[in-house]
């Protein structure tokens, strides 16, 4: 495999961090540690990383509303995912920042783009498993991209309680659609519509 060179860090998440690809500034590299301690591999982290990689491979690159995946590499105790680099802002930061919440008249267009992504993924057997504003990105061109497949997999324990359906046991299409509904409410209200029953159980 061609060695990867990490540029500036442009993002961090629960599963790892994202850098610019120093060899190609149109690409980003997501770095996912496979162990909690250097030089020690954690089987649980390997399983989660494998699910994320499989989701990208199954999704392919035929939907404009899903972040494009180029290749993967394992080295130095980490999984490196090479993805397209996006220019714009996450919907979390849009709503929380100066741009503010979406107008109600904008919601159908926003929802339609996310549904296009979900229909495409579900048709390929991929459940995202963690739909929320932080995992949706608005490009400068007005395209909404679905990111971060760290919650994919039917039994993946990674999810965000405030956006998850009550009493879920297996992640399926209904899980993603419920999360989308909560997300759309937040995008127009600026507030997370938390389900207290869910939060009290976690």
Question: How would you describe this protein?
Answer:
- It is a single chain.
- It is globular and about 50 Å long.
- The model is unreliable at 196-202 (pLDDT under 50).
- The protein is 31% helix and 21% strand.
- The protein has helices spanning 43-59, 91-96, 107-123, 173-189, 196-200, and strands at 6-12, 17-21, 27-33, 69-75, 78-84, 88-90, 136-139, 144-146.
- The longest helix has 17 residues, at 43-59.
- Helix 3 packs antiparallel against helix 4.
- The chain contains 5 helices and 8 strands; from the N terminus they run E-E-E-H-E-E-E-H-H-E-E-H-H.
- The relative contact order is 0.14.
- The chain is of the alpha+beta class and 202 residues long.
- A 5-stranded antiparallel sheet has the order 1-2-3-5-4, covered by helices on one side. A 3-stranded antiparallel sheet has the order 6-7-8.
Show the helix and strand layout.
Blueprint: E1 6-12, E2 17-21, E3 27-33, H1 43-59, E4 69-75, E5 78-84, E6 88-90, H2 91-96, H3 107-123, E7 136-139, E8 144-146, H4 173-189, H5 196-200
Antiparallel strand pairs: 1-2, 2-3, 3-5, 4-5, 6-7, 7-8
Helix pairs in contact: 3-4
**Largest sheet composition:** 5 strands, antiparallel
Helical percent range?
Answer: 25-40%
Q: Overall mean pLDDT score? A: 91
Number of helices: 5
H/E element sequence = EEEHEEEHHEEHH
Briefly characterize the structure.
The protein has 202 residues and is α+β, with helices and mostly antiparallel strands.
């Amino acid at each position: 495999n061609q060695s990867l060179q990490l540029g500036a860090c442009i993002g961090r998440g629960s599963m790892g961090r994202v850098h610019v690809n120093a060899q190609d500034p149109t690409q980003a590299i997501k770095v996912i540690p496979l162990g909690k301690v250097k030089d020690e591999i954690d089987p649980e982290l390997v399983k989660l990383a494998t699910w994320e990689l499989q989701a990208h491979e199954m999704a392919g690159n035929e939907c404009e509303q899903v972040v494009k995946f180029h290749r993967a590499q394992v080295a130095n105790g980490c999984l490196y995912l090479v993805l397209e680099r996006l220019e714009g802002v996450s919907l979390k930061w849009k709503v929380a920042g100066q741009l503010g919440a979406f107008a109600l008249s904008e919601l159908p267009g926003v929802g339609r783009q996310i549904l296009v992504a979900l229909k495409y993924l579900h048709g390929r057997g991929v459940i995202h498993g963690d739909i929320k504003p932080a995992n949706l990105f608005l490009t400068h061109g007005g395209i909404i991209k679905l990111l971060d497949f760290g919650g994919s997999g039917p039994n993946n324990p990674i999810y965000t309680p405030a956006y998850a359906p009550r009493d879920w046991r297996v992640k399926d299409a209904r899980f993603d659609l419920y999360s989308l509904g909560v997300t759309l409410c937040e995008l127009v209200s600026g507030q997370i519509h938390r389900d207290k029953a869910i939060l009290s159980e976690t």
